[in-house]
Amino acid sequence: MMLGRPKKLGNHFLTYYKNWSNLEAGFDWPLEGTTRLPTGAEEGDTPPDAREAQVTRQAHRHNDKKDRIMNSKKVLASAISAIALATVPLSAHAWPEQTVTIIVPYAPGGIADIAARTVAEAMTPVWGQEVIVDNRTGGAGFVAATAVARSTPDGHTLFVADMGVNVINPYLFDDIPYDPASDFRPITMISDTPLVLAAYSGAPFDTTEEYIAYAEANPGDISFASAGIGSLNHIVPEWINYETGIDTVHIPYRGGAPAATAVASGEAEVGVLALSSVGPFVDSDDIKLLGVARQERVESHPDLPTLIEGGVPNVAAGQWAGLFAPSGVSDEIIEKIYEDVAAYLATEEAQSAFADRGAIVSPMTSDEFSQMLDELREQFSTIIEAAGISAD
Protein backbone atom coordinates (compact mmCIF):
# COMPACT_ATOMS: atom_id res chain seq x y z
CA MET A 1 0.00 0.00 0.00
CA MET A 2 1.31 3.45 -0.90
CA LEU A 3 0.73 6.41 1.36
CA GLY A 4 0.62 9.92 -0.06
CA ARG A 5 2.58 12.75 1.46
CA PRO A 6 0.81 14.29 4.50
CA LYS A 7 -1.32 17.24 3.48
CA LYS A 8 -2.21 20.19 5.73
CA LEU A 9 -5.89 20.97 6.06
CA GLY A 10 -6.62 23.83 8.44
CA ASN A 11 -4.37 23.17 11.44
CA HIS A 12 -4.31 19.43 10.86
CA PHE A 13 -2.15 17.11 8.80
CA LEU A 14 -3.95 14.31 6.98
CA THR A 15 -2.33 11.35 5.26
CA TYR A 16 -4.38 10.16 2.35
CA TYR A 17 -4.26 6.87 0.46
CA LYS A 18 -2.78 7.26 -2.98
CA ASN A 19 -4.56 5.71 -5.94
CA TRP A 20 -7.20 3.48 -4.38
CA SER A 21 -7.45 1.33 -7.50
CA ASN A 22 -3.82 0.20 -7.17
CA LEU A 23 -4.75 -1.66 -3.99
CA GLU A 24 -6.97 -3.91 -6.04
CA ALA A 25 -4.46 -4.58 -8.85
CA GLY A 26 -3.09 -8.09 -9.24
CA PHE A 27 -6.35 -9.87 -8.43
CA ASP A 28 -8.54 -11.69 -10.92
CA TRP A 29 -12.22 -11.69 -10.32
CA PRO A 30 -14.34 -13.40 -9.11
CA LEU A 31 -12.37 -14.90 -6.25
CA GLU A 32 -14.86 -16.50 -3.94
CA GLY A 33 -16.59 -19.71 -4.99
CA THR A 34 -14.15 -20.44 -7.84
CA THR A 35 -10.89 -22.30 -8.44
CA ARG A 36 -9.48 -19.66 -10.75
CA LEU A 37 -5.86 -18.91 -9.83
CA PRO A 38 -4.22 -15.57 -9.37
CA THR A 39 -2.71 -14.01 -12.47
CA GLY A 40 0.37 -15.87 -13.77
CA ALA A 41 -0.46 -19.34 -12.30
CA GLU A 42 -0.75 -22.33 -14.60
CA GLU A 43 -2.78 -25.49 -14.28
CA GLY A 44 -0.79 -28.24 -12.60
CA ASP A 45 1.55 -25.93 -10.75
CA THR A 46 -0.21 -26.49 -7.44
CA PRO A 47 -2.41 -29.29 -6.12
CA PRO A 48 -6.16 -28.46 -6.20
CA ASP A 49 -6.50 -28.34 -2.41
CA ALA A 50 -3.55 -26.02 -2.17
CA ARG A 51 -4.93 -23.93 -4.98
CA GLU A 52 -8.26 -23.58 -3.15
CA ALA A 53 -6.44 -22.63 0.05
CA GLN A 54 -4.33 -20.13 -1.86
CA VAL A 55 -7.41 -18.58 -3.41
CA THR A 56 -9.14 -18.43 -0.03
CA ARG A 57 -6.13 -16.76 1.60
CA GLN A 58 -5.91 -14.28 -1.29
CA ALA A 59 -9.62 -13.51 -0.98
CA HIS A 60 -9.23 -12.96 2.76
CA ARG A 61 -6.27 -10.67 2.15
CA HIS A 62 -8.31 -8.77 -0.41
CA ASN A 63 -11.26 -8.43 1.94
CA ASP A 64 -8.97 -7.24 4.74
CA LYS A 65 -7.46 -4.63 2.43
CA LYS A 66 -10.88 -3.60 1.21
CA ASP A 67 -12.04 -3.18 4.83
CA ARG A 68 -8.94 -1.10 5.60
CA ILE A 69 -9.66 1.06 2.57
CA MET A 70 -13.24 1.65 3.65
CA ASN A 71 -12.19 2.39 7.24
CA SER A 72 -9.54 4.83 6.01
CA LYS A 73 -12.10 6.60 3.86
CA LYS A 74 -14.38 6.93 6.88
CA VAL A 75 -11.52 8.32 8.99
CA LEU A 76 -10.66 10.82 6.27
CA ALA A 77 -14.29 11.89 5.91
CA SER A 78 -14.66 12.29 9.68
CA ALA A 79 -11.50 14.38 9.90
CA ILE A 80 -12.60 16.66 7.08
CA SER A 81 -16.03 17.08 8.68
CA ALA A 82 -14.46 17.96 12.03
CA ILE A 83 -12.20 20.56 10.46
CA ALA A 84 -15.09 22.00 8.47
CA LEU A 85 -17.10 22.40 11.65
CA ALA A 86 -14.14 24.07 13.33
CA THR A 87 -14.00 26.70 10.58
CA VAL A 88 -17.68 27.67 10.77
CA PRO A 89 -17.93 31.38 11.79
CA LEU A 90 -18.50 32.01 15.47
CA SER A 91 -22.21 32.35 16.19
CA ALA A 92 -23.74 35.06 18.33
CA HIS A 93 -24.68 32.41 20.90
CA ALA A 94 -21.01 31.51 21.45
CA TRP A 95 -19.71 35.09 21.29
CA PRO A 96 -17.68 36.37 23.05
CA GLU A 97 -15.22 33.59 23.81
CA GLN A 98 -12.40 35.84 25.02
CA THR A 99 -11.56 39.41 26.02
CA VAL A 100 -13.15 42.05 23.79
CA THR A 101 -10.84 44.94 22.88
CA ILE A 102 -12.21 48.33 21.85
CA ILE A 103 -9.56 50.29 19.95
CA VAL A 104 -9.72 54.10 20.11
CA PRO A 105 -7.65 56.32 17.78
CA TYR A 106 -7.16 59.10 20.33
CA ALA A 107 -5.62 59.66 23.74
CA PRO A 108 -7.62 59.06 26.93
CA GLY A 109 -10.07 61.75 27.95
CA GLY A 110 -11.58 62.69 24.60
CA ILE A 111 -15.12 62.14 23.35
CA ALA A 112 -14.37 58.81 21.63
CA ASP A 113 -12.38 57.52 24.60
CA ILE A 114 -15.12 58.39 27.09
CA ALA A 115 -17.71 56.65 24.91
CA ALA A 116 -15.54 53.54 24.59
CA ARG A 117 -14.82 53.31 28.33
CA THR A 118 -18.45 53.84 29.27
CA VAL A 119 -19.55 51.04 26.94
CA ALA A 120 -16.69 48.76 28.01
CA GLU A 121 -17.58 49.08 31.68
CA ALA A 122 -21.26 48.42 30.99
CA MET A 123 -20.75 45.46 28.65
CA THR A 124 -18.23 43.51 30.75
CA PRO A 125 -20.92 41.95 33.00
CA VAL A 126 -23.38 41.62 30.12
CA TRP A 127 -20.99 39.68 27.88
CA GLY A 128 -19.32 37.72 30.67
CA GLN A 129 -15.87 38.62 29.34
CA GLU A 130 -13.57 41.51 30.12
CA VAL A 131 -13.96 44.45 27.75
CA ILE A 132 -10.89 46.67 27.57
CA VAL A 133 -10.02 49.93 25.80
CA ASP A 134 -6.82 50.21 23.77
CA ASN A 135 -5.82 53.79 22.87
CA ARG A 136 -3.71 53.70 19.71
CA THR A 137 -2.86 57.26 18.81
CA GLY A 138 -1.01 58.67 15.83
CA GLY A 139 -1.28 59.33 12.13
CA ALA A 140 -4.65 61.12 12.17
CA GLY A 141 -6.24 57.88 13.30
CA PHE A 142 -4.40 55.75 10.71
CA VAL A 143 -2.66 53.56 13.31
CA ALA A 144 -5.85 52.53 15.09
CA ALA A 145 -7.97 52.23 11.96
CA THR A 146 -5.43 50.02 10.22
CA ALA A 147 -5.13 47.76 13.27
CA VAL A 148 -8.88 47.23 13.32
CA ALA A 149 -9.13 46.71 9.56
CA ARG A 150 -6.47 43.98 9.73
CA SER A 151 -7.82 42.25 12.83
CA THR A 152 -9.57 38.87 12.82
CA PRO A 153 -13.25 39.52 12.04
CA ASP A 154 -14.67 37.51 14.94
CA GLY A 155 -16.15 40.36 16.97
CA HIS A 156 -13.44 40.39 19.62
CA THR A 157 -11.86 43.57 18.22
CA LEU A 158 -14.13 46.62 17.99
CA PHE A 159 -13.53 50.26 17.10
CA VAL A 160 -14.88 53.49 18.57
CA ALA A 161 -14.18 56.35 16.22
CA ASP A 162 -15.56 59.66 15.02
CA MET A 163 -16.26 61.78 11.97
CA GLY A 164 -12.57 62.41 11.28
CA VAL A 165 -11.56 58.77 10.89
CA ASN A 166 -14.73 57.53 9.21
CA VAL A 167 -15.80 60.45 7.03
CA ILE A 168 -13.20 63.20 6.65
CA ASN A 169 -9.81 61.48 6.25
CA PRO A 170 -10.32 60.04 2.74
CA TYR A 171 -10.96 63.55 1.40
CA LEU A 172 -8.12 65.23 3.28
CA PHE A 173 -5.31 62.83 2.39
CA ASP A 174 -4.30 61.59 -1.03
CA ASP A 175 -3.43 58.16 0.31
CA ILE A 176 -4.67 56.45 3.47
CA PRO A 177 -3.99 52.82 4.51
CA TYR A 178 -7.63 51.90 5.06
CA ASP A 179 -11.03 52.38 3.44
CA PRO A 180 -13.64 53.43 6.00
CA ALA A 181 -16.50 52.49 3.70
CA SER A 182 -15.37 48.89 3.11
CA ASP A 183 -13.03 48.00 6.01
CA PHE A 184 -15.52 48.61 8.83
CA ARG A 185 -19.08 47.61 9.66
CA PRO A 186 -21.04 50.29 11.52
CA ILE A 187 -22.78 48.88 14.60
CA THR A 188 -24.33 51.91 16.26
CA MET A 189 -23.74 55.51 17.18
CA ILE A 190 -23.02 55.80 20.88
CA SER A 191 -23.11 59.51 21.64
CA ASP A 192 -23.29 62.86 19.91
CA THR A 193 -21.79 66.06 21.28
CA PRO A 194 -23.60 69.02 19.67
CA LEU A 195 -21.64 71.68 17.83
CA VAL A 196 -22.71 75.29 18.24
CA LEU A 197 -21.98 78.47 16.33
CA ALA A 198 -20.38 80.48 19.13
CA ALA A 199 -19.43 84.16 18.96
CA TYR A 200 -17.33 86.53 21.02
CA SER A 201 -19.64 88.37 23.39
CA GLY A 202 -18.62 91.70 21.85
CA ALA A 203 -19.35 90.65 18.25
CA PRO A 204 -21.89 92.85 16.39
CA PHE A 205 -24.43 90.03 15.90
CA ASP A 206 -26.57 87.97 18.25
CA THR A 207 -28.28 85.42 16.00
CA THR A 208 -27.37 83.24 13.04
CA GLU A 209 -29.38 85.49 10.71
CA GLU A 210 -27.51 88.57 11.92
CA TYR A 211 -24.17 86.76 11.57
CA ILE A 212 -24.90 85.86 7.94
CA ALA A 213 -26.06 89.39 7.16
CA TYR A 214 -22.96 90.93 8.74
CA ALA A 215 -20.63 88.54 6.91
CA GLU A 216 -22.34 89.29 3.60
CA ALA A 217 -21.86 93.01 4.18
CA ASN A 218 -18.25 92.59 5.33
CA PRO A 219 -16.65 89.79 3.28
CA GLY A 220 -13.35 88.56 4.70
CA ASP A 221 -13.64 90.57 7.92
CA ILE A 222 -14.81 87.75 10.19
CA SER A 223 -12.39 85.09 11.40
CA PHE A 224 -13.36 81.71 12.80
CA ALA A 225 -11.31 79.53 15.13
CA SER A 226 -10.92 75.78 14.74
CA ALA A 227 -9.16 72.85 16.40
CA GLY A 228 -6.88 72.53 13.37
CA ILE A 229 -6.82 72.14 9.60
CA GLY A 230 -9.26 69.47 8.48
CA SER A 231 -10.97 69.25 11.86
CA LEU A 232 -14.74 69.19 12.11
CA ASN A 233 -14.50 72.70 13.61
CA HIS A 234 -12.81 73.76 10.37
CA ILE A 235 -15.10 72.03 7.89
CA VAL A 236 -18.49 73.01 9.37
CA PRO A 237 -17.81 76.79 9.15
CA GLU A 238 -16.68 76.21 5.56
CA TRP A 239 -19.97 74.36 5.05
CA ILE A 240 -21.82 77.43 6.33
CA ASN A 241 -19.84 79.55 3.87
CA TYR A 242 -20.70 77.12 1.06
CA GLU A 243 -24.43 77.15 1.79
CA THR A 244 -24.75 80.91 2.30
CA GLY A 245 -22.05 82.34 0.04
CA ILE A 246 -20.32 84.29 2.81
CA ASP A 247 -16.53 84.65 3.07
CA THR A 248 -14.79 84.18 6.42
CA VAL A 249 -11.15 83.62 7.41
CA HIS A 250 -9.92 80.42 9.08
CA ILE A 251 -7.55 80.53 12.07
CA PRO A 252 -6.43 77.03 13.14
CA TYR A 253 -5.45 76.27 16.73
CA ARG A 254 -4.01 73.20 18.42
CA GLY A 255 -7.23 71.70 19.73
CA GLY A 256 -10.76 72.61 20.67
CA ALA A 257 -9.93 74.17 24.03
CA PRO A 258 -7.49 76.77 22.60
CA ALA A 259 -10.02 77.54 19.86
CA ALA A 260 -12.74 78.19 22.44
CA THR A 261 -10.37 80.41 24.40
CA ALA A 262 -9.60 82.38 21.23
CA VAL A 263 -13.29 83.10 20.66
CA ALA A 264 -13.83 83.99 24.32
CA SER A 265 -10.99 86.52 24.16
CA GLY A 266 -12.10 88.05 20.87
CA GLU A 267 -9.00 86.84 19.03
CA ALA A 268 -11.46 85.20 16.63
CA GLU A 269 -15.01 86.43 16.21
CA VAL A 270 -16.70 83.04 15.91
CA GLY A 271 -16.15 79.31 16.04
CA VAL A 272 -18.18 76.17 15.51
CA LEU A 273 -17.27 74.37 18.72
CA ALA A 274 -18.48 71.61 21.02
CA LEU A 275 -21.24 72.80 23.30
CA SER A 276 -19.44 71.20 26.23
CA SER A 277 -16.22 73.14 25.57
CA VAL A 278 -17.84 76.58 25.43
CA GLY A 279 -20.14 76.09 28.43
CA PRO A 280 -17.86 77.76 30.99
CA PHE A 281 -17.35 80.77 28.69
CA VAL A 282 -21.11 81.10 28.20
CA ASP A 283 -21.56 81.09 31.97
CA SER A 284 -18.95 83.85 32.28
CA ASP A 285 -20.60 85.88 29.47
CA ASP A 286 -17.47 85.77 27.32
CA ILE A 287 -19.22 83.78 24.58
CA LYS A 288 -22.75 83.91 23.19
CA LEU A 289 -24.44 81.11 21.28
CA LEU A 290 -26.01 81.81 17.88
CA GLY A 291 -27.24 78.37 16.83
CA VAL A 292 -26.71 74.62 17.03
CA ALA A 293 -25.62 72.44 14.11
CA ARG A 294 -28.34 69.81 14.45
CA GLN A 295 -31.57 68.78 12.76
CA GLU A 296 -33.42 69.51 15.99
CA ARG A 297 -32.85 71.69 19.03
CA VAL A 298 -30.89 70.45 22.02
CA GLU A 299 -33.00 69.49 25.02
CA SER A 300 -30.59 71.20 27.42
CA HIS A 301 -30.86 74.46 25.43
CA PRO A 302 -34.43 74.53 24.10
CA ASP A 303 -34.28 78.24 23.25
CA LEU A 304 -31.23 77.86 21.00
CA PRO A 305 -32.36 77.60 17.35
CA THR A 306 -30.72 75.26 14.88
CA LEU A 307 -28.57 76.72 12.11
CA ILE A 308 -31.19 75.49 9.66
CA GLU A 309 -33.81 77.56 11.48
CA GLY A 310 -31.39 80.49 11.27
CA GLY A 311 -31.27 80.36 7.48
CA VAL A 312 -28.35 78.00 6.86
CA PRO A 313 -29.73 75.00 4.92
CA ASN A 314 -28.49 71.42 5.39
CA VAL A 315 -25.80 72.12 7.99
CA ALA A 316 -26.10 69.50 10.72
CA ALA A 317 -23.10 67.67 12.13
CA GLY A 318 -21.89 66.75 15.59
CA GLN A 319 -18.86 65.32 17.32
CA TRP A 320 -20.28 61.84 17.57
CA ALA A 321 -18.63 58.63 18.68
CA GLY A 322 -19.65 55.45 16.89
CA LEU A 323 -19.05 51.74 17.41
CA PHE A 324 -17.64 49.72 14.51
CA ALA A 325 -16.39 46.20 13.79
CA PRO A 326 -13.98 45.02 11.10
CA SER A 327 -15.59 44.00 7.85
CA GLY A 328 -16.38 40.29 7.85
CA VAL A 329 -17.97 40.05 11.28
CA SER A 330 -21.21 38.08 10.96
CA ASP A 331 -24.63 39.70 10.95
CA GLU A 332 -25.55 37.69 14.05
CA ILE A 333 -22.70 39.12 16.11
CA ILE A 334 -23.28 42.66 14.82
CA GLU A 335 -26.94 42.39 15.83
CA LYS A 336 -26.09 41.02 19.29
CA ILE A 337 -23.60 43.81 19.98
CA TYR A 338 -26.09 46.41 18.81
CA GLU A 339 -28.92 45.02 20.93
CA ASP A 340 -26.78 44.85 24.07
CA VAL A 341 -25.26 48.31 23.66
CA ALA A 342 -28.57 49.91 22.66
CA ALA A 343 -30.26 48.38 25.70
CA TYR A 344 -27.66 49.99 27.94
CA LEU A 345 -27.85 53.36 26.16
CA ALA A 346 -31.61 53.41 26.77
CA THR A 347 -31.08 53.41 30.54
CA GLU A 348 -31.18 56.53 32.70
CA GLU A 349 -27.72 55.62 33.95
CA ALA A 350 -26.23 55.87 30.45
CA GLN A 351 -28.09 59.03 29.51
CA SER A 352 -27.02 60.71 32.73
CA ALA A 353 -23.39 59.62 32.29
CA PHE A 354 -23.17 61.16 28.83
CA ALA A 355 -25.21 64.24 29.70
CA ASP A 356 -22.71 65.06 32.44
CA ARG A 357 -20.10 65.31 29.68
CA GLY A 358 -22.24 67.41 27.36
CA ALA A 359 -23.15 64.53 25.06
CA ILE A 360 -26.45 63.08 23.89
CA VAL A 361 -27.09 59.35 23.69
CA SER A 362 -27.94 58.58 20.06
CA PRO A 363 -28.21 54.84 19.32
CA MET A 364 -28.89 53.84 15.71
CA THR A 365 -29.24 50.50 13.99
CA SER A 366 -26.41 49.38 11.73
CA ASP A 367 -28.45 50.26 8.62
CA GLU A 368 -29.39 53.70 9.94
CA PHE A 369 -25.79 54.43 10.89
CA SER A 370 -24.55 53.28 7.46
CA GLN A 371 -27.03 55.54 5.70
CA MET A 372 -25.99 58.53 7.80
CA LEU A 373 -22.31 57.88 7.04
CA ASP A 374 -23.00 57.65 3.30
CA GLU A 375 -24.82 60.99 3.37
CA LEU A 376 -22.06 62.66 5.39
CA ARG A 377 -19.35 61.39 3.05
CA GLU A 378 -21.17 62.81 0.07
CA GLN A 379 -21.66 66.18 1.77
CA PHE A 380 -18.16 66.47 3.20
CA SER A 381 -16.40 65.46 0.00
CA THR A 382 -18.17 68.36 -1.71
CA ILE A 383 -17.36 70.88 1.03
CA ILE A 384 -13.71 69.84 1.38
CA GLU A 385 -13.16 70.08 -2.36
CA ALA A 386 -14.97 73.42 -2.66
CA ALA A 387 -12.98 74.93 0.22
CA GLY A 388 -9.69 73.48 -1.03
CA ILE A 389 -8.92 71.83 2.30
CA SER A 390 -5.99 69.41 2.35
CA ALA A 391 -3.81 67.86 5.04
CA ASP A 392 -1.06 66.74 2.64
From TrEMBL:
Disordered: annotated segments: 34-67
Alphabetized Pfam families for the sequence: TctC
Keyword Metal-binding on entry: no
Keywords recorded for this protein, A-Z: Receptor
CDD domains: PBP2_Bug_TTT
PANTHER family: BLR1237 PROTEIN (PTHR42928:SF5), TRICARBOXYLATE-BINDING PROTEIN (PTHR42928)
Family classification: Belongs to the UPF0065 (bug) family.
The name this protein goes by in its record: Tripartite-type tricarboxylate transporter, receptor component TctC
Organism: Franzmannia pantelleriensis
